[in-house]
Amino acid sequence: MNSITADKIAAGAIAATGLAADAIDGKTIKGATTATVTGGILRTGPSGRRVLLAPTDPVDNSPAPSALLYSGADAEKQPARLTAEARAAPDGSVPMTRLTGPQLTADATQTPQALARLRQPRHRLPGPRQLLPERAR
User: Fold this and answer.
1) What pTM value is reported for the model?
2) Which of 80, 82, 90, 98 could form a disulfide with 69 if both were Cys (CB 3.0 to 4.6 A apart)?
3) Greatest CA span in the chain, whole angstroms?
4) Which residues share a beta bridge with 82?
5) How far is CA 20 from CA 4, 16, 38, 94, 110, in A?
6) Picking from 5-19, 68-82, 103-117, 120-134, which range would have the lowest pLDDT averaged per residue?
7) 25-50: per-residue pLDDT in tens?
Protein backbone atom coordinates (compact mmCIF):
# COMPACT_ATOMS: atom_id res chain seq x y z
CA MET A 1 0.00 0.00 0.00
CA ASN A 2 1.28 3.46 -0.89
CA SER A 3 1.21 6.18 1.73
CA ILE A 4 1.65 9.95 1.76
CA THR A 5 2.39 12.04 4.82
CA ALA A 6 1.90 15.78 4.49
CA ASP A 7 0.78 18.74 6.57
CA LYS A 8 -1.09 20.33 3.65
CA ILE A 9 -2.12 19.09 0.23
CA ALA A 10 -3.49 21.52 -2.35
CA ALA A 11 -7.22 21.32 -3.07
CA GLY A 12 -7.93 19.04 -6.02
CA ALA A 13 -4.44 17.49 -5.92
CA ILE A 14 -5.67 13.94 -5.19
CA ALA A 15 -8.00 11.83 -7.31
CA ALA A 16 -8.82 8.43 -5.84
CA THR A 17 -11.56 5.81 -5.83
CA GLY A 18 -11.13 5.38 -2.07
CA LEU A 19 -9.68 7.32 0.83
CA ALA A 20 -8.92 6.10 4.35
CA ALA A 21 -8.46 8.72 7.06
CA ASP A 22 -8.89 9.13 10.80
CA ALA A 23 -10.28 12.65 10.33
CA ILE A 24 -11.23 14.83 7.40
CA ASP A 25 -11.76 18.54 7.96
CA GLY A 26 -13.31 20.51 5.16
CA LYS A 27 -16.09 22.76 4.01
CA THR A 28 -17.87 20.50 1.51
CA ILE A 29 -18.07 16.82 0.68
CA LYS A 30 -19.54 16.28 -2.77
CA GLY A 31 -20.74 13.19 -4.58
CA ALA A 32 -21.50 12.91 -8.30
CA THR A 33 -25.28 12.98 -7.75
CA THR A 34 -25.57 11.22 -4.40
CA ALA A 35 -22.96 11.00 -1.66
CA THR A 36 -22.98 7.75 0.32
CA VAL A 37 -21.65 7.24 3.84
CA THR A 38 -21.41 3.55 4.63
CA GLY A 39 -20.83 1.69 7.85
CA GLY A 40 -21.21 4.50 10.29
CA ILE A 41 -22.96 7.51 11.73
CA LEU A 42 -23.04 11.00 10.26
CA ARG A 43 -23.05 13.72 12.95
CA THR A 44 -23.21 17.45 12.22
CA GLY A 45 -21.44 18.48 15.44
CA PRO A 46 -19.96 17.11 18.67
CA SER A 47 -22.41 18.88 21.03
CA GLY A 48 -25.16 21.47 21.20
CA ARG A 49 -27.69 21.72 18.37
CA ARG A 50 -26.92 18.95 15.93
CA VAL A 51 -28.32 16.13 13.81
CA LEU A 52 -27.14 12.54 13.94
CA LEU A 53 -28.01 10.13 11.11
CA ALA A 54 -27.58 6.42 11.84
CA PRO A 55 -28.35 3.15 10.02
CA THR A 56 -29.83 1.80 13.30
CA ASP A 57 -31.43 3.63 16.21
CA PRO A 58 -28.61 4.29 18.74
CA VAL A 59 -31.12 5.19 21.50
CA ASP A 60 -32.93 1.84 21.73
CA ASN A 61 -30.74 -0.30 19.41
CA SER A 62 -33.67 -1.04 17.09
CA PRO A 63 -32.74 -1.83 13.48
CA ALA A 64 -34.67 1.19 12.15
CA PRO A 65 -32.65 3.91 10.39
CA SER A 66 -32.81 7.04 12.51
CA ALA A 67 -32.30 10.78 12.60
CA LEU A 68 -31.65 12.13 16.09
CA LEU A 69 -32.35 15.83 16.51
CA TYR A 70 -30.52 17.43 19.45
CA SER A 71 -31.98 20.76 20.60
CA GLY A 72 -28.94 21.81 22.58
CA ALA A 73 -31.09 22.48 25.67
CA ASP A 74 -29.27 21.90 28.96
CA ALA A 75 -32.23 19.86 30.29
CA GLU A 76 -32.35 17.50 27.28
CA LYS A 77 -31.92 13.86 28.33
CA GLN A 78 -32.98 12.23 25.02
CA PRO A 79 -33.01 13.91 21.60
CA ALA A 80 -36.00 14.07 19.29
CA ARG A 81 -35.98 11.02 16.97
CA LEU A 82 -37.28 10.28 13.49
CA THR A 83 -37.32 6.60 12.52
CA ALA A 84 -38.78 4.58 9.65
CA GLU A 85 -39.31 0.84 9.48
CA ALA A 86 -41.58 -1.93 8.29
CA ARG A 87 -43.03 -3.74 11.30
CA ALA A 88 -43.96 -7.40 11.02
CA ALA A 89 -47.69 -8.16 11.07
CA PRO A 90 -49.63 -11.43 10.65
CA ASP A 91 -50.52 -10.57 7.04
CA GLY A 92 -47.20 -8.95 6.06
CA SER A 93 -45.18 -5.87 6.90
CA VAL A 94 -46.67 -2.53 7.93
CA PRO A 95 -44.69 0.61 7.05
CA MET A 96 -44.31 2.98 10.00
CA THR A 97 -42.65 6.34 10.65
CA ARG A 98 -42.17 7.63 14.21
CA LEU A 99 -41.32 11.11 15.42
CA THR A 100 -40.65 11.79 19.09
CA GLY A 101 -40.02 15.09 20.79
CA PRO A 102 -36.99 15.60 23.02
CA GLN A 103 -37.17 14.30 26.59
CA LEU A 104 -36.22 16.97 29.11
CA THR A 105 -36.05 14.96 32.35
CA ALA A 106 -34.36 11.70 33.24
CA ASP A 107 -37.66 10.20 34.52
CA ALA A 108 -39.69 9.30 31.42
CA THR A 109 -42.68 8.28 33.58
CA GLN A 110 -43.00 11.85 34.88
CA THR A 111 -42.51 13.63 31.56
CA PRO A 112 -42.74 11.18 28.65
CA GLN A 113 -41.59 12.19 25.19
CA ALA A 114 -44.24 13.34 22.75
CA LEU A 115 -44.70 10.69 20.06
CA ALA A 116 -46.43 10.69 16.69
CA ARG A 117 -46.66 7.56 14.54
CA LEU A 118 -47.64 7.54 10.89
CA ARG A 119 -48.54 4.08 9.69
CA GLN A 120 -50.68 2.36 7.16
CA PRO A 121 -53.98 1.57 8.95
CA ARG A 122 -54.51 -1.88 7.44
CA HIS A 123 -51.99 -3.80 5.43
CA ARG A 124 -52.52 -3.99 1.67
CA LEU A 125 -55.60 -1.81 1.64
CA PRO A 126 -55.62 1.40 -0.38
CA GLY A 127 -56.62 4.59 1.31
CA PRO A 128 -55.36 7.42 3.48
CA ARG A 129 -52.73 7.07 6.14
CA GLN A 130 -53.44 7.90 9.76
CA LEU A 131 -51.60 9.79 12.43
CA LEU A 132 -52.18 7.70 15.54
CA PRO A 133 -51.40 8.84 19.09
CA GLU A 134 -49.18 6.58 21.18
CA ARG A 135 -51.11 4.56 23.75
CA ALA A 136 -50.39 5.28 27.40
CA ARG A 137 -48.08 2.69 28.88
Assistant:
1) 0.63
2) 80
3) 60
4) 67, 99
5) 12, 10, 13, 39, 46
6) 120-134
7) 777 766 667 767 776 788 888 889 99
